């Protein structure tokens, strides 16, 4: 699968994230807890781990920037930065590890949490939010992690197959 | 143990961090208007999202309606009663309006004063909602070309829900009032009063974890009671006068002990809001 199709697919997911997914999350879940779909991030992490880290970094920066602009973040940059950081680090680590399902999912969970924590700290630094980290972690970051991990598990097999169609390219690049 | 990052990469990462912090610092706060690449991107993505949000909402609404099919009879009765009340109110409104008009003439009101309370309600459809819970915004399908400007109030039929944060030519972003917090720099407090007594005054400064709006700075002698309907007072000059915010559920002494505070249940549903249609309220300028 070439990069243009990957780009298009992630763009479609980006669009669905703000529209369709919003309707699919039951309102009851918002009872004290908060769940946010980070499906774009999950896909970008897959790209970064299975293709190469530079492509992942580029996608992360671009889709983060798009989020910042389309949803009118108070400033431009927080999502772009955290998504780029998460994608690049995932790529760097994946290069040195054997990618199995378990290790992939572990890494994805770690970087979903990293993404949220990075956003939380940037927003706190700019005084966009003023909420304690403890409750944010239990009420938002953990439920969000579980929700997105579920998505990652569902798309793991197809994503792996699509992205690894030219696996050889990655091997060459990493040598 | 392998080294994760080389020296060169570490420096590169630090430079990136500095650049990003600079970018965030520069774009933070109120900007005059968006730059054209932002406007372009925002409008194109918003347009595409509009194609998805509405059908999704309709389908979700359909299943919701199926679930409520059994309540239709009671609902119908309630609505009929409401309709007859409404007819009575219309008669009263007509009389009052005519009277107000006559008095305004008699008191030599200027054109600006007469127009001050004739708001224009722009009907807008929601096209997407931000998946980021730290910063809850929705995008609507009206923009600069439709006369939407920054800081206009946004409401549903139930009550106030937010404020326009920024505008592109054909779409704009609305910050929900669930973001209100006096400790942060990006939200605006709402000056409020009650329907029962126009002399009442308080500032809505925070949205609590229990999904109530906290109204502060109420004088201890103020007559606000539990059950009162809270409206915007218009004194803040951001939100126009008379929009329903919610009802008072409790009142007590504030943390400082000098003034009182009241908890308000928002009239419009804000938690996990599945909004479809909203109104942008324009105050006409003569």
Descriptive keywords:
heterodimer; A: 175 residues; mainly alpha; 8 helices; 77% helix; globular; B: 286 residues; alpha+beta; Thrombin, subunit H; 2 domains; 6-stranded antiparallel β-barrel; 6-stranded antiparallel beta barrel; 12 strands; 33% helix
Kindly provide the name of the CATH class of the largest domain in chain B.
Mainly Beta
Run of helices and strands of chain B: HHHHEEEEEEEEEEEE
Question: Poorly predicted ranges of chain A (pLDDT <50, ≥5 residues)?
Answer: none
Kindly report the greatest chain-chain contact and the residue count on each side: A-B, 49 and 49 residues
Radius of gyration of chain B, whole Å: 23 Å
Counting DSSP E segments of at least 2 residues, the number of strands of chain B comes to 12
Mean residue pLDDT of chain B: 85
- How big a fraction of the residues of chain A is strand? under 5%
Q: What is the total domain count of chain B? A: 2
CATH overall fold name of the largest domain in chain B: Thrombin, subunit H
Describe the structure.
The complex is a heterodimer of chains A (about 180) and B (about 290). With about 180 residues, chain A is an all-alpha fold. Chain A is about 75% helix and about 0% strand. In chain A, α1 packs antiparallel against α3. Chain A is globular and about 45 Å long. Chain A starts with a helix and ends with a helix. The model of chain A has no long low-confidence stretch (mean pLDDT about 85). Chain B is about 35% helix and about 25% strand. The mean pLDDT of chain B is about 85. Chain B is α+β, with helices and mostly antiparallel strands and about 290 residues long. The longest helix of chain B has about 35 residues, at about 70-105. In chain B, the strands form two sheets. Chain B has a six-stranded antiparallel β-barrel. Chain B has a six-stranded antiparallel beta barrel with strand order 6-7-8-11-10-9. In chain B, β7 and β8 form a beta hairpin. The interface between A and B is large, with 49 and 49 residues.
